[in-house]
Amino acid sequence: TQLLEQSPQFLSIQEGENLTVYCNSSSVFSSLQWYRQEPGEGPVLLVTVVTGGEVKKLKRLTFQFGDARKDSSLHITAAQPGDTGLYLCAVLGGSEKLVFGKGTKLTVNP
Amino acid sequence: GAGVSQSPSNKVTEKGKDVELRCDPISGHTALYWYRQRLGQGLEFLIYFQGNSAPDKSGLPSDRFSAERTGESVSTLTIQRTQQEDSAVYLCASSYQVDYNSPLHFGNGTRLTVT
């Protein structure tokens, strides 16, 4: 059983469109991280959310942590081809290891 | 200084051979992680080190896999008697310490192909 479920698994959109991807779990977490991975590279941290209901903005990216701290969303406004990549959410699992979801593969077409 | 460095970047090996993958973490980072990423998939946890100790080895797929870390620095992941299902990108990451305030810094991975 996956600790973190990410949806959708794949998303292909046109430049300028808005999109939202989700990270869900039945467990409660003290914090949650979002990473982006581009082809041929390792993931890079985008944001950490720690408070239920918290909203953080990073330019055109808006991250929200659910009130119950079981889920999170990432919204991208006016997507650009440079946003293309694999978006991964991650939480500290048992024994303090960082556990990742399977990711959402986003393609933004020019 | 430099980020996390992994070598080799690509490795092609024949089934049954042993391989050794190397990770040089960011200097001063006490925590070091190994993950495996199969094509088009997310990251599968293998093992992590706090200093030179490995508190959690639960992700190692079989006894063919082993890892060590020395001098709270370099780590090597060894796969013995490689199988085709071992083909994947092996990612190493380091962090200042193990908590949510310390983000993971990843290397670019070693792409392993077992023929």
Q: How does this model look, in words?
A:
The complex is a heterodimer of chains A (110) and B (115). Chain A is an all-beta fold. Chain A contains no helices and eleven strands. In chain A, strands 2, 4, 5, 9, 10 and 11 form a six-stranded mixed beta sheet that branches. Chain A has a five-stranded antiparallel beta sheet with strand order 1-3-8-7-6, with no helix packed on it. The mean pLDDT of chain A is 92. With 115 residues, chain B is mostly beta strands. In chain B, 0% of the residues lie in helices and 49% in strands. Chain B is built from no helices and eleven strands. In chain B, strands 2, 4, 5, 6, 9, 10 and 11 form a seven-stranded mixed beta sheet that branches. In chain B, β4 and β5 form a beta hairpin. Chain B is globular. Classes of the chains: A mainly beta (110), B mainly beta (115).
Keywords:
heterodimer, A: 110 residues, mainly beta, five-stranded antiparallel β-sheet, 0% helix, B: 115 residues, seven-stranded mixed β-sheet, four-stranded antiparallel β-sheet, globular
Annotation, overall tally of beta strands of chain A: 11
- Helix-strand string of chain A: EEEEEEEEEEE
Oligomeric state of the chains in view: heterodimer
Shape of chain B: globular
> What count of helical segments of chain B does DSSP give?
0
Q: Which blocks of ≥5 consecutive residues of chain B have pLDDT under 50?
A: none
Mean model confidence by pLDDT of chain B:
93
Distance between the termini of chain A: 37 Å
Element order of chain B: H for helix, E for strand: EEEEEEEEEEE
Q: What's the alpha carbon Rg of chain A, rounded to whole Å?
A: 13 Å
Which regions of chain A are unreliable across 5 or more consecutive residues at pLDDT < 50?
none
Given helix and strand content, the structural type of chain B is mainly beta
Overall pLDDT of chain A: 92
Number of strands of chain B: 11
Beta fraction of chain A: over 45%
**Greatest interface by residues involved:** A-B, 28 and 25 residues
What class do helices, strands and sheet pairing of chain A give? mainly beta
Residues in helices of chain A, as a percent range: under 10%
Largest sheet of chain A: 6 strands, mixed
Contiguous helical run count of chain A: 0
